[in-house]
Backbone:
């Protein structure tokens, strides 16, 4: 079956620091990969996605590249802000699983001024 | 309009009450989902509706009863809940069930006394 393994948190950084949150996956089909972000008290929002190998998703300064050879989709941002403090979920879905998405456990990021 | 709305935002109920959660989307999506999310955990899938028919029930107790009156609306009827059912209930929708992006609502924070 499908699975997603995310870097354990919590992660605490100073403003303007470089961020990496690791995500690796196993999948039986050809999945699409996603990063969702959840701000306190809110639902999940799509941050970025990639639908095939070597695609790079990007949004709001965040980037992630779909690496099939290493089955990874690591999230990076060059300079984090306090407003980036949130929980980040890596996820995958494919057309073999009737709409089910598989989520990682989430990584809590806190950015301090 | 890329918004999924959920009502109410907060709900407190006793174990003998009957209440309903509502979800609405106007993106023309044909798949809708209910998730349960405990604090600091990823969302857990409960139900999937595809073209207004229940396609996945993740062995959810019968005290949770989903309903999809039309392609834009999704309800979750609650009856005789337990305190351990207290959680954030998230609704989501997607274009289909073929592995695409899910759009989440803000959630209903449920407390069972």
Residues:
């Amino acid at each position: 079956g499908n699975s997603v393994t995310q870097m354990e948190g919590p992660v605490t950084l100073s403003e303007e620091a470089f961020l990496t949150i690791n995500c690796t996956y196993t999948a039986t089909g050809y999945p699409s990969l996603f990063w969702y972000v959840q701000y306190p008290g809110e639902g999940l929002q799509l941050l970025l996605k990639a639908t095939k190998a070597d695609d790079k998703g990007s949004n709001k300064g965040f980037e992630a590249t779909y690496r099939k050879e290493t089955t990874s989709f690591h999230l990076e941002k060059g300079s984090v802000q306090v407003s980036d403090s949130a929980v980040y979920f890596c996820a995958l879905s494919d057309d073999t699983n009737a709409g089910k998405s598989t989520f990682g456990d989430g990584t809590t990021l806190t950015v301090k001024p | 309009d890329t918004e999924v709305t959920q009502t109410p935002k907060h709900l407190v109920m006793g174990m003998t009450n009957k209440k309903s959660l509502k979800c609405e989307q106007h993106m023309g999506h044909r798949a809708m989902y209910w998730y349960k999310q405990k604090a600091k955990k990823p969302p857990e899938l409960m139900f999937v509706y595809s073209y207004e028919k229940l396609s996945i029930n993740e062995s959810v107790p019968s005290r949770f009863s989903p309903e999809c009156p039309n392609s834009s609306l999704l309800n979750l009827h609650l009856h005789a809940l337990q305190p351990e059912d207290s959680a954030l209930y998230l609704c989501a929708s997607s274009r289909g069930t073929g592995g695409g992006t899910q759009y989440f609502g803000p959630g209903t924070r449920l407390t069972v006394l």
The mean pLDDT of chain B is 93.
